[in-house]
Amino acid sequence: MAPRVVIIGAGPAGVRAAQACVEAGLRPTVIDEGRRDGGQIYRRQPEGFSRSYDTLYGTEAERAASLHTGFDALKRSIDYLPETLVWNISANAVHTVSGTRYGALPFDALIVCSGATDRLMPVKGWHQAGTYSLGGAQVALKSQGCAIGSRIVMMGSGPLLYLVSAQYVKAGAQIAAVLDTSTFMQRIAALPRLFAIPPALKKGIALTRVLSKAGVPVYRGVQPVEIKGSPQTGVSGVEVALAGGKRIEFACDAVALGYHLRPETQLADLAGCRFIFDDAAQQWLAQIDSDGRSSVKGVYLAGDGARVRGADAAERSGRLAALAALQDHGVQAAGIGDMQRLRDELARFSRFAAGLREAFPWPAQFAAALPDETIVCRCEAITAGELRRVVRETGAQEANRAKAFSRVGMGRCQGRYCGHAGAEVIAAA
Question: 215-228, pLDDT tens digit by residue?
Answer without folding.
Answer: 999 999 999 999 99
